[in-house]
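Pilot study result, target chain (71 residues):
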Amino acid sequence: MTGEIVEALRNGMFRIQLDNGHETLGYTAGKMRRFRIRMNPGDRVRIELSAYDLGRGRIVYRMRPGDERPE
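Predicted structure:
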């Protein structure tokens, strides 16, 4: 799923507005943290939702401006 970062929270968490209108919490994936990929409010991201808790997900990709890759 894709969405937009609305707010940066503590401990590497972000509030994300999904394209379908829902709002969820997301955290950065390990490789994004390892390579120090920074995210700011307003960035478009791809997120994988947890099968057990649809209110949380893992951010796996930060899209560049004008980049809309198919999922």
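One observation from the pilot: Helices lie at 30-34. A full batch analysis is planned for the follow-on phase.
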